[in-house]
Amino acid sequence: MNTQNNKSLAPDATSISKTLSYLLRHAPQTIGLQLDPEGWADIGELIAGAARDGHRLDRATIETVCATSDKQRFALSDDRRRIRAVQGHSTSAVQRRYPAAQPPERLYHGTATRFLDSIRAQGLKPGARHHVHLSPDIRTALAVGTRYGVPVILEIDAQRMQRQGHTFFVAENGVWLTDAVPADCLTPIDPPAC
Ligand code: HQG
């Protein structure tokens, strides 16, 4: 794993969140962790596997990171023995079945200007993840786009997509998911003035 620069230091919450995202969304196999198709991992196995890889995790810290995650990325099972990432997976071990949901008329996707030509030609594709990720608000989309460089916000016509037969899902943390966004259902819009 390359999610921490110095494993011997006590990791901060952001670093732990990144480690959990990496293990629970993308690469559980790197520590021999089993995820079930709905994404659940046994917390004891997660702690033991991470420890073998030199990462100090404990139950209380994991629970704190889950509770305080700005995007509520993780969920604990009712009995608090299991944890999962609620969206964002790329690992084939997970095939979450989200219930279909009625989206708002408009959804937003933040990306970088350098991807625009390709997106205009192909629409939005899920890439390595299982879904295209959309947000109900422009501010979140702007933050996502800024991660990649000069941001651009795409406004998604969710009703038009539904008329074309696309289905929407919403994860427990309010992130909207769909299979792909056709080019004729997205429009670049100006970012809001800060
Ligand atoms: C782009 C974060 C060229 C797409 C966020 C994006 C999100 C294309 C990148 C979650 C394309 C994929 C997911 C095309 C899509 N041509 N580029 N045809 N179609 N792209 O990371 O949505 O903080 O897989 O625009 O908040 O950026 O990690 O998806 O730039 O909810 O919890 O290809 O990750 O959450 O990148 O981010 P990603 P995303 P966390």
TrEMBL record:
Pfam families: PTS_2-RNA. Gene3D superfamilies: 3.20.170.30, RNA 2'-phosphotransferase, Tpt1/KptA family, N-terminal domain. The keyword Cytoplasm does not apply. GO terms for molecular function: transferase activity. InterPro entries: Ptrans_KptA/Tpt1 (IPR002745), RNA_2'-PTrans_C (IPR042081), RNA_2'-PTrans_KptA (IPR022928), RNA_2'-PTrans_N (IPR042080). It comes from the Bacteria. Keywords: NAD, Transferase. Its EC number is 2.7.1.-. Signal peptide: none annotated. Belongs to the KptA/TPT1 family. Removes the 2'-phosphate from RNA via an intermediate in which the phosphate is ADP-ribosylated by NAD followed by a presumed transesterification to release the RNA and generate ADP-ribose 1''-2''-cyclic phosphate (APPR>P). May function as an ADP-ribosylase. HAMAP family: KptA. This is Probable RNA 2'-phosphotransferase. It comes from Burkholderia theae.
